[in-house]
UniProtKB/TrEMBL annotation:
The keyword Ligase applies. One of its GO terms (biological process) is fatty acid metabolic process. GO terms for molecular function: medium-chain fatty acid-CoA ligase activity. Keywords: Ligase. The keyword Calcium does not apply. It comes from Kordia periserrulae. Residues 97-265 form the AMP-dependent synthetase/ligase domain. Belongs to the ATP-dependent AMP-binding enzyme family. This is O-succinylbenzoic acid--CoA ligase.
Length: 399
């Protein structure tokens, strides 16, 4: 049943700009307000006419009731979504979220709700998402990726279905979806069912070479995304399949976003509709143009071994040919080299023949002499964040 949705005018604050953060955000807020007047860009207080949640239409007030019901009576994943909905549907212009903690301790940051709307609109433009399209929410809603799936649905007018965030979310589903977001582990466990999704974005961690290879025969349009909590999920994406043989995709920015590098060759993001100031990252990149780049790795992971700078992420990409377990390369102190490259492998049963593996790597000629690990160690279980990302430094401390 179609329901008439009333759009509410966004309340404009008349309070004086008093804090440093308000001074930074003020131009962004003015820009947002002008755009809404001239281009009819929706406010964060709008709920799209075609938005559905689990097959039902809701306006703003009805959605508040759903949120309270989720919190009071829902399953754990619904309770988390209910908490977010309550925060989203209040009259505050911002929302507080936690970072993933993959590069340090999780921290609370404040995001503009209107900036989250702009992020949703940019995603819709980039991937060709239309009102009435079916979307699946299979990510936990306690972090930004899961929250933004709901925001996109409310702003773009999607028919959003919720499922328990498991490692195999498509296992018992037959319905076809136009859009979905997953982490690599979910993709790996859903290969037989991916044909039911038209467009899939993959984030949270890099997709391994072996996973990318397994996606080449899949009809789904699959993209790796680049982003972080501070950029309100992805600001760029690259295709993982349907590419000419032998070619690799480059990250291309979403609309109204440009990139450059600083003196460390680290990515600098200019996204005026999402944040009031440029974001300087610790990600080393090759810039192709102001809207395209290749990601090389994190500057804080770079290993200087005997004067040679090594990017662990690039080495790991080559090592995926030989290792089926989870792993990463890092470094330990060495008197001769300063830092010595080592390989850490997650092996719960501790049955891996590390000597044989090292010999295979050395004889493969796939890695330069500097990229070959000087030693291999196994650990029963890697230390992870709440979102399943490996914490390299803390794992190394366990060794």
């Amino acid at each position: 049943m179609w329901r008439k949705i009333y759009f509410y005018k966004q309340k404009q604050s008349t309070k004086l700009v008093k804090t440093t953060q308000e001074i930074v955000d003020f131009p962004l807020r003015i820009c947002n307000f002008i755009e809404q007047l001239t281009k009819m860009i929706p406010s964060f207080q709008n709920i799209h006419l075609k938005f559905q949640l689990d097959g039902n239409y809701f306006n703003r007030e009805e959605l508040k009731e759903v949120a309270y019901s989720f919190v009071k009576e829902g399953k754990p994943y619904e309770q988390i979504m209910g908490d977010f909905l309550i925060d989203w549907l209040n009259d505050k212009e911002y929302i507080d979220v936690f970072t993933s903690g993959s590069t340090g301790k999780p921290k609370s940051i404040r995001l503009s709700k209107q900036a989250m709307v702009h992020s949703a609109l940019a995603t819709g433009d980039f991937f060709g998402i239309h009102p009435g399209d079916a979307a699946l929410q299979c990510l936990p809603s306690n972090f930004i990726a899961g929250k933004m799936m709901l925001v996109r649905a409310m702003i773009l007018g999607l028919e959003l279905d919720l499922v328990v965030p498991t490692s195999n979310p498509l296992e018992n589903l037959e319905k076809k979806y136009d859009f979905c977001a997953m982490v690599p582990l979910q993709v790996e466990n859903s290969l037989k069912h991916l044909h039911n999704i038209k467009t899939l974005i993959v984030g949270g961690a890099p997709a391994s070479n072996s996973l990318v290879e397994s996606l080449q025969g899949v009809s789904t349009n699959i993209f790796a995304t680049y982003g972080m909590t501070e950029t309100i999920t992805h600001i760029a994406a690259k295709p993982l399949n349907h590419l000419p043989k032998g070619e690799k995709g480059h990250y291309k920015t979403l609309p109204n976003i440009s990139v450059s590098v600083d003196d460390r060759n680290c990515l600098v993001i200019d996204a005026p509709r999402i944040t009031g100031e440029k974001i300087i990252t610790n990600d080393v990149v090759d810039i192709i143009s102001e809207t395209e780049f290749d990601w090389l790795g994190r500057v804080d992971n770079v290993i200087n071994s005997g004067g040679v700078k090594l990017h662990p992420e690039q080495i790991e990409e080559k090592l995926h040919l030989f290792i089926k377990h989870r792993f990463f390369v890092t470094a330990v102190d060495d008197e001769q080299l300063g830092k010595k490259l080592i390989l850490l492998i997650e092996d719960e049963k501790q049955k891996l023949n590390t000597a044989a593996l090292l010999k295979t790597i050395q004889n493969s000629k796939k890695l330069s002499k500097f990229e070959i690990p000087k030693a291999i160690y196994t650990i029963k279980k890697f230390v992870e964040t709440d979102t399943g990302k490996v914490q390299r430094l803390k794992t190394l401390e366990v060794l």
